[in-house]
């Protein structure tokens, strides 16, 4: 503990007589009893202390201290039996040696009174303190004595401390006689025997207490403002976070809306191009009728055409998700070119066969067949009553040219076909890949050909197994051949196929080339 000696007042009653250290609460200050000498001390932080038990030798020290006023002597617990530390000399002293040492500083102070003080001496000053005597009027309530009584009490108090005289005085005020015990700090009315507590406070303590209460009130007010501002900041922070999250959500929605808008714009453009293409093809349908004697020809469809992109997407998607190995190649296929075939003669044969089927199947309920490629040629109006569908046919470049010129000819088909010597089609692009010429030993080898065709299935036969060697459709009823034959054969995925293995792809087989018309010739690579 380091304390600065302030102003001393001797007393044998304040705090009791004992050596060692004891601390008691007194108002806002404290009483510190140490080493047999009482000094009025003040901590650097502002707390007040006293040291009790006054000896004759100590009184001499007090006189010197009173002459030089406030000193730079401090109480230190670091050196046993030498509790006083002089900050001017940086030395420790006992209460016996302190007197001589203080005399040295007193002489030095007298010699330099007329000169400019040094840095150490600037810290030595006389601290004057006022006082206030009060009596208790109620629990925790105090009232000050009149001013003339204040002076009497203070003089008696100082005299008792300086001389060790009586601590008891008789006091007359306001017509009443009171018995004052300075040591016990009590006031007694001899007439009524009423006992009141009294107390003495110094102005520095009072002012400090008042300032402290004001500061505490100001601190409490500021703390309340800080809490209010903190709550406001938290509210605004939450609001900012909410607005930030809402902005992010709006940005996401805006970005998604922009993507949708771009997609819709692209689709609108594609539909416009497709509509233009449909109108163009419709005109070509009229042209076919008007130019029945014209030679076959082809018209190229550009890469930027909506139909080009549409068919490429359809071919990539026409691969069952359960198919892998070679089938995976078609999921990344790229169209190289696309041509629309114009062959009036083949078209005329197709229309003639279509009319025949309409007559044959009049009144006959046929089982409906669906194709995965129904949206491939949206400009075409298909006759669902005849099971007219869009299907794919894989072939090489040489045979593709012949089909362009003369149409499909079953006589050129393979005799060893699993379902007879017919023309094979499928609505799964990975199946026709096997015959397109784009693979060699199961590996991509170049450009392959696929023909997109209209196909008349009529009344189909759903076979349960291979039909090798057949050149015509099977009878509807072997026991009654007069009922006629089916118009096509359909091998569904899952039936027993080649060598007892399951059929993987769906295939359509016709035995009359007039039941197919080539619409588009596609060249692609994997």
UniProtKB/TrEMBL annotation:
Its EC number is 2.4.2.-. One of its GO terms (molecular function) is NAD+ poly-ADP-ribosyltransferase activity. PROSITE patterns: PARP_CATALYTIC, WWE. One of its GO terms (cellular component) is nucleus. Residues 295-526 form the PARP catalytic domain. It is an enzyme of class 2 (transferase). InterPro entries: ARTD-AVP, Poly(ADP-ribose)pol_cat_dom, WWE-dom_subgr, WWE_dom, WWE_dom_sf. Residues 119-200 form the WWE domain. Keywords: Coiled coil, Glycosyltransferase, NAD, Nucleus, Transferase. It is found in: Nucleus. This is Poly [ADP-ribose] polymerase.
């Amino acid at each position: 503990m380091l304390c600065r000696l302030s102003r001393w007042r001797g007393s044998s009653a304040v705090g009791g007589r004992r050596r060692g250290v004891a601390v008691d609460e007194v108002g806002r200050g404290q009483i510190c009893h140490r080493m047999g000498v009482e000094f009025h001390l003040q901590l650097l932080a502002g707390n007040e202390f006293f040291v009790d038990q006054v000896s004759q030798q100590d009184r001499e020290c007090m006189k010197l201290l009173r002459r030089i006023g406030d000193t730079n002597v401090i109480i230190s617990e670091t050196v046993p039996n030498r509790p006083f530390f002089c900050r001017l000399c940086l030395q420790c002293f006992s209460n016996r040696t302190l007197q001589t040492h203080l005399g040295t500083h007193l002489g030095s102070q007298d010699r330099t009174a007329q000169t400019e003080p040094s840095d150490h001496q600037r810290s030595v000053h006389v601290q004057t303190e006022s006082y206030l005597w009060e009596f208790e009027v109620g629990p925790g309530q105090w009232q000050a004595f009149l001013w003339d009584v204040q002076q009497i009490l203070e003089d008696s108090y100082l005299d008792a401390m300086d001389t060790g005289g009586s601590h008891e005085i008789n006091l007359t005020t306001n017509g009443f006689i009171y018995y004052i015990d300075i040591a016990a700090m009590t006031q007694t009315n001899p007439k009524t025997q009423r006992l009141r507590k009294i107390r003495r406070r110094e102005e520095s303590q009072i002012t400090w207490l008042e300032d402290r209460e004001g500061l505490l009130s100001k601190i409490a007010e500021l703390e309340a403002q800080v809490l209010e501002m903190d709550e406001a900041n938290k509210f605004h922070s939450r609001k900012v976070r909410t607005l930030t999250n809402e902005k992010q959500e709006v940005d996401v929605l805006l970005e998604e809306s922009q993507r949708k808008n771009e997609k819709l714009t692209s689709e609108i453009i594609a539909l416009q191009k497709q509509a233009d293409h449909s109108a163009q093809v419709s005109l070509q349908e009229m042209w076919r009728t008007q130019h029945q004697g014209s030679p076959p020809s082809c018209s190229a469809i550009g890469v930027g055409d909506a139909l080009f992109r549409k068919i490429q997407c359809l071919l990539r998607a026409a691969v069952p998700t359960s198919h892998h190995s070679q089938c995976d190649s078609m999921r990344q296929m790229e169209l190289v070119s696309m041509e629309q075939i114009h062959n009036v003669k083949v078209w005329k044969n197709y229309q003639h066969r279509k009319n025949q089927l309409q007559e044959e199947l009049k009144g006959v309920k046929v089982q409906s067949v669906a194709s995965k490629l129904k949206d491939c040629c949206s400009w075409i109006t298909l006759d669902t009553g005849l099971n007219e569908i869009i299907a794919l046919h894989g072939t090489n470049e040489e045979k593709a040219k012949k089909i362009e010129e003369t149409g499909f000819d079953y006589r050129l088909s393979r005799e060893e076909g699993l379902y007879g010597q017919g023309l094979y089609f499928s609505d799964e692009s990975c199946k026709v890949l096997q015959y397109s010429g784009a693979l060699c030993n199961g590996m991509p080898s170049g450009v392959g050909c696929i023909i997109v065709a209209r196909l008349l299935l009529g009344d189909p036969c759903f076979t349960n197994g291979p039909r090798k060697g057949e050149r015509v459709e099977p009878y509807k009823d072997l026991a009654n051949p007069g009922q006629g034959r089916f118009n096509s054969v359909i091998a569904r995925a899952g039936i027993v196929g080649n060598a007892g293995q399951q059929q993987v792809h769906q295939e359509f087989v016709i035995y009359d080339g007039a039941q197919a018309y080539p619409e588009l010739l596609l060249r692609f690579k994997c």
